[in-house]
Amino acid sequence: MEKMWGGRFTKPMDPKAFEFSSSIGVDQKLARYDVEGSIAHVKMLAKTNIISRDESDRILKGLKEILALITSGRFKPDTKYEDIHTNVQALLEKKVGKVAKMLHTARSRNDQIALDTRLYVRGEIKNIISSITGLQRAILDPGKRYSQVIIPGYTHLQPGQPVLLCHHLLAYVEMLERDNWRLIQASQRADEMPLGAGALAGTTLPIDREYVAKLLKFSKVSANSIDAVSERDFIIETLSSLAILAMHLSRICEDLILWSTQEFGFITIDESFCTGSSLMPQKKNPDILELIRGKTGKVYGNLISVLVMMKSLPLAYNRDLQEDKEPLFNSIETVASSLEVLARLFKGIKVNLKKVMEEAKDELMMTTDLVEYLIKKKVASSQAQLIVGKIVRYCLDKKRKLSELSLKEMKSFSNRFESDIFELFSPQASIKAKRSSGSTNPVQVKAALARWQRKLKR
Question: Confidence band (pLDDT; 50, 70, 90) for 6?
Answer without folding.
Answer: low
